[in-house]
Specification:
Layout (H helix, E strand, L loop, with lengths): L9 H9 L3 H4 L4 E4 L5 H10 L6 E5 L3 H10 L3 E2 L16 H8 L4 E4 L4 H4 L6 E4 L4 H13 L2 H17 L2 H14 L3
Parallel strand pairs: 1-2, 3-4, 4-5
Helix pairs in contact: 1-7
Length: 182
Amino acid sequence: VARMHRYKGVETILAAIALLTPQENEKIQYLVAGTGPYLQTLHEKVKILELESQVKFLGSLTDSELVSYYQASDLFLLCSWQEKIEQNVEGFGLVFLEAQACGTPAIGTLSGGIPDAIENNNGGWLIPEKDSQALTNLLKRFIADPNELTTQGINARNRVIEHCTWQTYLENFLKLLEKHHI
């Protein structure tokens, strides 16, 4: 779920899926939601990697459609990386919290504000930028033990409810104001 730009890391995910065995690959359905200037390049990459049966492009989704897709998914992936030349970076990654709030664990990268939205091994996982092999290893693990995704989905939702609501942010902000006598 993203505006399709190169730095959003969809190619990292495609490369990771391409590294799976044919038997593992059959168990993957990667849904890409969003539009943007890099979308055509991604369509071409899917053809080159022969992943047409595993990858579906959904285009723009309404908020209610998005919630339905989050809830129906086993895993949310967004592997953004910092693009220094054009100064692109994932600021916070609200989509990670949205997915986790729906009970879907998330994989993101150690980039920008993503580590603020995902707690490694507690409802999600963090991998290095552009590391398709690390992502492939996680995907293989989840294909072998899908129950881990269920457990981590519960952890993700609980963590977001406990630590990432507007009420929690407001309380933390008020504590800071009080601490600094503002």
